[in-house]
Amino acid sequence: MCSPQKSEQTEDPAAAEKIVNLYTHRHYQSDQKLFEDFERETGIKVNVVSASADELIKRMEMEAEASPADVLITVDAGRLHRAKEKDLLQPIKSTKLEANIPLIFRDKQGYWFGLTFRARVIAYALDRVNPAQVPDYESLTDPRWKGKVLVRSSGNIYNQSLLASIIASTGPENAKNWAAGVVSNMAREPKGNDRDQVKAVAAGVGDLAILNTYYIGKLLASDNQEEVAAGKAIGVIFPNQNGRGTHINVSGAGVAKYAPNKENAIKFIEFLSSEDAQRVFAESNFEYPVRSGTSLAPLLDSWGSFKADTLDLGLLGDYNRDAVMLFDEVGWK
Amino acid sequence: MNPAKLLPKHLSPVNFWLAAAVVAMLLMGTPVYTILTGLLAGPGPYWAHLQRYLLTDYIINSLILVVGTSGLALLWGIPTAWFVSTTRFPGRRMLELLLIMPLSIPTYIMAFTYAGIFDFTGPLHTIIRNIFKVKVVHWDIMNIYGVMIIMSLALFPYVYVIARAAFLTKFRSLIEASQTLGASSTRTFFQVILPVSRPALVAGVTLVSMEVLNDYGAVKYFGIPTFTTGIFRSWFSYEDVQAAVYLSSLLLLFVFMILLIEKRQRGEERFYTSVAAERPLQMVKPNKMKRWIVLVCCVLPVLFGFVIPVIQLAWWSITSYKSVAHIDLFAAVGNSFVLALGTAISCVTVAVLMLFVSRMQDSRIYNLFMKLSTMGYAIPGAVVAIGVLMPFLFIDKQLISMFQNFGDIDPGLILTGTAIGLLFALTVRFLSVAFNPIESGFEKIAYSLDEAASTLQASHLSRLTRVNLPLLKGALGTAGLLVFVDILKELPLTLILRPFNFNTLATRSFELASDEQIAAAAVPSLIIIITGLIPVYLLNALITKRTKK
Questions:
Q1: Is A41 on the interface with B (CB under 8 A)?
Q2: Interface of A with B in 179-238 (CB under 8 A)
Q3: What is the pTM assigned to this prediction?
Q4: Which of B226, B237, B392, B510 to mutate to test the interface with A (most CBs of A within 10 A)?
Q5: Structural element, H or E, at residue A119
Q6: What's the pLDDT tens digit per position in B92-133?
Q7: Superfamily covering domain A17-117+249-295
Q8: In this predicted complex, what is the ipTM?
């Protein structure tokens, strides 16, 4: 039923099996299609285990040199950075990857490469909020928005990375004040997923919600007309355009330190950074492609370009724990 | 005093049986022992932080959820079990079966579904908004009380099944005596049955409590911090394994207390019947008014625990089946089925082995370790997964170096890279589900039968297969079916430990749901429920058959 997918380690790379073993946190439909395309193009079969990045990293850590994993894919740069710190990835030198992926979206030493990025934005009720009053994340703590702010729980990695980015750019003291300010403005206890925050804005529970861009796209593309209506009732603010820029995070991949099929792994990541693959990411999952020049989904296009925070994404991993502890201290559940 | 102590010396099990049982116990207890020994290592660097900011919330929320859910589960489970067992009313036969059906719906799917129904863009609000043109306040069920009610609806069949089996078999004579003395049905229930059925109720509540404690999906989505949340937070966010272990052991302590209560409650209950009186129970036929009340009481839990969520899931499936067309659901059905069957068989086998030896061993220490090794049920699946990975990877790595020394071959990860590791972990986790019915099954077999067999010089094996197992048939069936349904629903363990390209219905449904595609997740969810109906149907047949020979 399921034999271990591991190639025999021989000296001759030509004898290597035509497979690549993938540990991934992404389970989007579009990915499945890309894997099939890759198989068709190269004859290399993609084997997949998907679970949360934390669990996959733990599994790789325990498997150590016996690990069958070739590639680790996460939806958060912080987790890739953590895998690198734990010595689970290896640096890759690939002119293709360096040409396709701008430096801010990849690890400087080649341990991991961003494939798509997403912005954590503020959605506002079109009929109740003047977006000019919410220019940045910091304005969410303005007492004017008491009982109006919606956001999911602090267990969520996107929130953790957002706070980590604030720690990295403004220091822990300011970051703590920010988190405390958001908590005191919350419309309700944090719960649900990103889409639920938009729905709560539509329902009038609150006026402002923090969420990732692609969820708005998915809401607008929903089969349920009520969800589409909820998506249309909100506008999108890209915060901090006059300062450090909007917080972004990448979904990306790294080659495992003990990858049995290293060459295939590199080929695979190169394929995901190719023009065609990048277009699939952009079109079907409303993510921003990292490769410049790739056309965006019409919705993303309609929001126009924005200034992204150019913070070293590895710092999201470095400050992750501090961020979670700050959340606990200020009572952000 | 336990009659086993009266057994002559030569009846004590030969070493082979004891050795096999001890090995099984040690293996099954791996995660529990790992956690308990972790206690010695101290609380870890982030424990102080956790204690200061989070622990109170975890304890209070977990306690509220356990008590509240159990209470509600009793409320849905006991009266319904009583009515379908003793009262004639229209639709009784059908409801008897329908009342078990919520068991086939995974708790987290029930939670997602109800959240969807009460959602602002869900059917309830949409209808009120668009048809009645009323602007309503957002009715939010995503809070601790919502979780409590939803979990109780998904879990009450545990109470129902156990209570019903008790009403139909053990208490028949009591019920009939009470009826003969002219007591009304209500009076019989409150004054005769409720007091004596306490042990059965506690057994049901124990299962419900453990399910509540290990839930992760529902509480996470609803934003309720519990022990499970805390374990993951310490483990992954703080990377403080010791704090996670400390929390897990607190959780185990909690469970141990529940089990102790169960044990005490069951202490006096010892029915040694070798031949059960198998006659159908006399049914009461109440007046019309009462019949209606009974009917409504039995219909409501079915309506909210099964019909409504299934309709919602079916509706979502219709609207979104296209978006799952690319997924090979047939393979997922096959994998789910094989995994559930395999785990059911292995859980039942291990439970029988451990209990058979305990029956003759009757050592306090043996029994304590036996209980410990079944506590894996309350530990969150992800923790069990890692607890199992550790020893298995060790063996795997030894195997690899052995192979390499001999023939320069790399066999890969033989245990953890295949379904073997997964099957083992699932057995560890769900042993308790099989253990409880088989344990009470064994308790009902008179020791005199074992004694007779051994006087006839029967071997241990033939005593097991020719005396005990035939009398345990019902219990084995119940145990196997309960495990089967549980594995169909199982998520975290399968997710982490599965080999490459191995998908089950539950992992498919989770992947879609965590991608916030709840509607698409309905398709695999619905298939889980439909597949689960088969064992649920058999379970009902088993319970009723035992009384209707």
A1: no
A2: 188-196, 199-200, 202-205, 215, 218, 222-224, 226-227, 229-230
A3: 0.88
A4: B237
A5: strand A113-125
A6: 999 999 999 999 999 989 999 999 999 888 888 888 888 877
A7: Periplasmic binding protein-like II (3.40.190.10)
A8: 0.87
